[in-house]
Design goal:
Distance between the termini: 31 Å
Order of helices and strands: EEHHH
Radius of gyration: 19 Å
Helix content: 55-70%
Pfam families: Ctr
Largest sheet: 2 strands, antiparallel
Membrane topology: Multi-pass membrane protein
Family: Belongs to the copper transporter (Ctr) (TC 1.A.56) family. SLC31A subfamily.
Keywords: Copper, Copper transport, Ion transport, Membrane, Transmembrane, Transmembrane helix, Transport
Number of helices: 3
Main location: membrane
Oligomer: single chain
């Protein structure tokens, strides 16, 4: 039965039935994996934003009247940017689903991973990068 309130304990199922923890070792490794995955999300988000800025600075401004017909609409840079956005969205939603296990340790591991990942990967040039949406999964 799935918990509907936060609980603290080593016995849990994460995302799929085969990912169950029943010992402190497996629980600790799961929390470490979630922490690293959350930090990796911040790294990938930083790469996506930097790539988007780089591709925008290299392409000429397109006409606002016909954005679908502009020549850069099918450029490799836009395709790669869309691919990175899709990967980041998938990682964000998987982290959200992990938190929805309602395990307190999972919640703490994901939030700490996001915070440490932001500190390490995204605050170096914070004044030169504008984020259009602060949502963790956008």
């Amino acid at each position: 039965m799935m918990h509907m309130t936060f609980y603290w304990g080593k016995k849990m199922t994460l995302l799929v039935d085969s990912w169950k923890t029943d010992s402190w070792t497996s629980y600790g490794l799961t929390l470490l994996a979630l922490f690293l995955f959350s930090a990796f999300y911040q790294y990938m988000e930083d790469r996506r934003i930097r790539f988007k800025l780089l591709s925008a600075s290299k392409s000429p401004p397109s006409s606002m009247a016909t954005p679908l017909l502009s020549s850069n609409a099918r450029s490799p840079a836009r395709f790669a940017s869309a691919l990175l956005f899709g990967i980041n969205s998938a990682i964000g939603y998987l982290l959200m689903l992990a938190i929805m296990s309602y395990n307190g340790g999972v919640f703490v591991a994901v939030v700490l991973g996001l915070a440490i990942g932001y500190l390490v990967f995204r605050t170096a040039d914070a004044e030169s990068i504008f984020v259009e949406n602060p949502c963790a999964c956008a």
